[in-house]
TrEMBL record:
This is SH3b domain-containing protein. Residues 36-99 form the SH3b domain. Pfam families: SH3_3 (PF08239). InterPro entries: SH3-like_bac-type (IPR003646). Transmembrane segments: none annotated.
Length: 99
């Protein structure tokens, strides 16, 4: 009887540890999937504009491989980006790859 109690306690404790670990990993995966705010420029010479339109004023040019932060991803065709130095502007979604 004592052995049964002891093995039941150990199994319960191990089950609790597994449940906690699964929840921690699930939480991390959810956070990663929701936190899709970084991107890489995939086109050479990407012109960043002041509005989400090809007719918007050209602000500056980014080179392929540049890292950007997406500050507004609500539009399908355009993303508002921010650079580490604080510069902001709009780029076509097709010219960046979200990471």
């Amino acid at each position: 009887k004592a052995i049964l109690k002891k093995s039941g306690f150990i199994c319960g404790f191990l089950f609790l540890i597994v449940v906690v670990l699964v929840n921690v990993f699930a939480s991390q995966q959810k956070k990663l999937s929701l936190n899709r705010d970084k991107a890489i420029v995939v086109s050479p010479g990407l012109t960043v504009r002041n509005t989400p339109s090809d007719s918007g004023t050209s602000l500056f040019v980014l080179h392929e491989g540049s890292k950007v932060i997406i500050s507004d991803g609500s539009m399908k065709e355009w993303k508002r980006i921010r650079l580490e130095d604080g510069k902001v502007g709009w780029v076509p979604t097709s010219d960046i790859e979200i990471i």
